[in-house]
From TrEMBL:
Protein source organism: Candidatus Collierbacteria bacterium CG22_combo_CG10-13_8_21_14_all_43_12
Superkingdom of source: Bacteria
InterPro entries in the cross-refs: ArsR-like_HTH (IPR011991), HTH_11 (IPR013196), PRTase-like (IPR029057), PRTase_dom (IPR000836), WH-like_DNA-bd_sf (IPR036388), WH_DNA-bd_sf (IPR036390)
Annotated Helix-turn-helix type domain residues: 6-45
Pfam families, sorted: HTH_11 (PF08279)
UniProt name for this protein: Helix-turn-helix type 11 domain-containing protein
Taxonomic path: Bacteria, Candidatus Collieribacteriota
Length: 323
């Protein structure tokens, strides 16, 4: 009997098992079992739950169907580059595989929906110049005074009808799951764009907007460490009163502005040239604008202050409440 079939038989009888349990039962090495499990997972025969060192494997009771499709090359390319679907069980599917499953779950015709998705991606891509979305005009329509010289997003957090973008998905689940591996994947994806911006704008100093919500692994700390930027760092602090109120919990613009004014403190005293302020997600832009305001009022910047968010909202004032 083939090893793959023996694994399936064992799981059908025992419902679930670890790799070590399968290795002991079959009398083969852990490496041989892992090879078979990897193949069975890739083909959709098995699913897994947990993460190392505690991972259980089981028969996939609802294997995804693979309807025949023959999309034109340009549609396949756009979907492969831009689409990410994270299943309810936490499986990460990119490109066509993810889009197929999403269409199936939504009961949508694959090819027609693929064309509509690509059209939507192309629509939103028109806002990008050299891989960046300029969000300054949105900020100027939101505030009477804007203290940033420019504001950029690497992508929108979500797009019409199809929901969160690839970066939006990665950011949401990297922060919520606190998985360093997912954070690393996201950071490695965005690093080239950040480095290009630093070079093109002659950035000499960088500031990272600190989080409000306490987490064991803070995404912004991982981002700062992995970027390895050889720049001076602006000292920015978040002050918490009796109750920590995250920006994302506030739906009114005036509340967000008040929150930023009373929680952000720029404790820097030295002088800087061009400054880049990095935040993970920008909804109203209140925190970045308040940070830039304090830098200007302290007179510690004789250059430009540029804001950068991994993701930002598309509408004039839109609250990103998930991240």
């Amino acid at each position: 009997m083939k090893t793959s079939q023996a694994i399936r038989n064992y799981l059908q009888m025992h419902r679930q098992a670890t790799g070590k349990e399968l290795s002991d039962h079959l009398g083969i090495t852990d490496r041989a079992v892992r090879k078979q499990l990897s193949s069975l997972l890739e083909s959709g025969v098995l699913t897994k739950k947990g993460r190392p060192p505690t991972v259980y494997y089981q028969i996939n009771s609802n294997p995804p169907s693979q309807p025949h499709h023959s999309l034109p090359t340009h549609l396949t390319r756009v979907i492969s580059q831009n689409y990410l679907f994270i299943t309810p069980t936490g499986k990460k599917l990119t490109g066509i595989d993810g889009f197929l499953l999403w269409c199936e779950k939504q009961k949508l015709p694959f090819e027609k929906t693929a064309r509509e998705y690509v059209a939507m991606v192309n629509k939103f891509s028109k806002y990008k110049r050299q891989g960046l979305i300029n969000g300054l005009s949105k900020l100027k329509h939101t505030y009477l005074q804007v203290f940033l010289d420019n504001l950029y997003y690497l992508d929108f957090y979500s797009i019409d009808r199809f929901g969160k973008t690839k970066l939006g998905q990665l950011l949401l689940y990297a922060k919520q799951s606190q998985q360093t591996l997912l954070m690393t994947e996201l950071i490695d994806t965005i690093t080239p764009a950040i480095e290009r911006l630093i070079t093109s704008k002659n950035i000499t100093s960088v500031g990272f907007i600190p989080p409000t919500v306490k987490r064991q692994i803070q995404f912004m700390s991982v981002l700062k460490g992995r970027l390895h930027l050889k720049l001076r760092t602006i000292s920015i602090k978040k002050i918490v009163s009796d109750v920590a109120v995250p920006q994302k919990s506030l739906t009114r613009l005036t509340d967000r502005i008040e929150n930023a004014q009373h929680s952000i403190v720029v404790s820097e005293t030295s002088y800087h040239g061009n400054i880049l302020l990095i935040d993970d997600a920008v909804g109203s832009g209140a925190t970045l604008n308040e940070t830039a305001k304090q830098i200007r009022e302290k007179g510690i910047c004789d250059g430009k202050i540029i804001g950068l968010a991994i993701t930002g909202s598309f509408k004039g004032f839109d609250v990103i409440s998930e991240v």
